[in-house]
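User: quick one, sequence for these tokens?
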């Protein structure tokens, strides 16, 4: 298979913000942006909403199991839903998932009115994750396809900035609704947002827009048959584990050193830095993907994590000042990993590839939370923070040979397997 054609000669001379100007010119940009934002708020609301809803009548540990069950249900089924989106009509998958999800939300709200059995609540929490319409994943596929090669990186950077914004506003909205209105209110809002996002997206994808797959791409492993994609997925899982580790360790540090009021400020400052970093990546005047590759960005993140570990030895105020700087590479690394994931995906399997990335996000987050919480208990949060760069370093090494055009040096993007001859 021949390599992709080179960028035009003028591509390296693109100016700052050129990627955003090109993205604004994409047909249907307004609708895509609206769906993208609406699809991300529910993810930031469901976890805290479940914690507060189940924790109202049951032990906090039970509430934590409900949150974990929802995440596990979503992680285990995301690749299957992505494969269905690629093989079937995305419209049918979206509408079917929405109907099942609304039924699960309705059942959860009905049971939550009384003191429901724990097993039933946990089963419905898992059902929430299993039936979640794959709007956010499909949005990344649409961004990658609609933006074009020169603007795909900017689109993914914007998508990451939206995710960071939703991770700030989603929990705040869920908390306010739960405590000021009703513990059921966040799920009503989640249902409305999800329904609106699906309705808008159905109009974008049409009745049957699943792209045809190339001959020979029917391997049962799907995208996992591609070695560069496997490296990318491993790097993504390690990266998310490190990010989650910081999210777990900073509140612990605040509690250990009598700085509890800083807890929310630490996480908010990290998220603000992440959003700004994502937007800056999309504004860079480069041609193919809007900035440096993930290996460089993960190296920058490792440096920021190291700076946080040093700041913890100084004072809680120093940690707060470093948090926005440490967060700068988080959103941009997410965007770069997803841009390359879309580039490496076999034809007709982009949505499944994005779904695998989402599953590895959840798996890496769960592993990072468990690992660094244990290290914080055993060694203290300051010592555990010193180990975060050790988790990021392998991720940077795994992704350093993946260029931002999706091709490892000296290789071509994962080619389709040649069909076997039937004798």
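Assistant:
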């Amino acid at each position: 298979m021949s390599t992709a054609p080179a960028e035009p000669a003028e591509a390296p001379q693109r100016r700052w913000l050129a990627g955003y100007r090109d993205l604004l010119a994409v047909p249907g940009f307004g609708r895509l942006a609206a769906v993208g934002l609406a699809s991300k708020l529910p993810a930031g609301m469901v976890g805290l909403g479940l914690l507060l809803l189940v924790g109202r009548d049951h032990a906090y540990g039970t509430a934590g199991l409900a949150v974990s069950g929802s995440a596990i249900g979503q992680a285990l089924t995301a690749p299957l839903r992505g494969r269905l989106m690629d093989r079937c009509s995305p419209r049918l998958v979206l509408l079917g998932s929405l109907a099942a999800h609304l039924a699960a939300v309705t059942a959860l709200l009905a049971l939550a009115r009384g003191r429901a059995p724990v097993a039933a609540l946990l089963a419905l929490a898992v059902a929430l994750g299993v039936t979640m319409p794959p709007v956010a994943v499909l949005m990344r596929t649409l961004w990658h396809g609609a933006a074009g090669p020169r603007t795909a990186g900017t689109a993914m950077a914007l998508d990451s900035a939206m995710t960071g914004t939703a991770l700030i506003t989603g929990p705040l909205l869920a908390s306010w609704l739960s405590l000021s209105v009703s513990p059921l209110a966040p799920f009503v809002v989640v249902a409305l947002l999800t329904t609106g996002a699906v309705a808008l997206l159905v109009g974008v994808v049409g009745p049957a827009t699943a792209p045809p797959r190339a001959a020979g791409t029917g391997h049962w492993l799907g995208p996992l048959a591609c070695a560069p994609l496997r490296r990318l997925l491993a790097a993504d899982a390690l990266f998310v584990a490190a990010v989650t580790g910081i999210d777990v360790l900073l509140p612990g540090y605040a509690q250990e050193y009598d700085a509890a009021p800083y807890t929310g400020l630490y996480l908010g400052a990290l998220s603000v830095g992440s959003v700004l970093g994502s937007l800056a990546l999309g504004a860079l005047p480069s041609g193919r993907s809007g900035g440096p590759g993930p290996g460089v960005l993960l190296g920058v993140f490792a440096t920021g994590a190291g700076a946080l570990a040093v700041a913890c030895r100084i004072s809680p105020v120093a940690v707060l000042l470093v948090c926005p700087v440490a967060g700068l590479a988080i959103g941009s690394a997410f965007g770069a990993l997803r841009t390359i994931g879309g580039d490496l995906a076999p034809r007709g399997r982009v949505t499944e590839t994005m779904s695998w990335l989402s599953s590895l996000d959840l798996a890496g987050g769960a592993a990072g939370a468990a690992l660094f919480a244990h290290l914080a208990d055993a060694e203290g949060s300051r010592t555990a923070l010193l180990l975060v760069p050790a988790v990021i370093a392998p991720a940077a090494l795994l992704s350093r040979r993946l260029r931002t055009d999706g091709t490892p040096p000296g290789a071509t993007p994962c080619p389709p397997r040649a069909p076997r001859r039937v004798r």
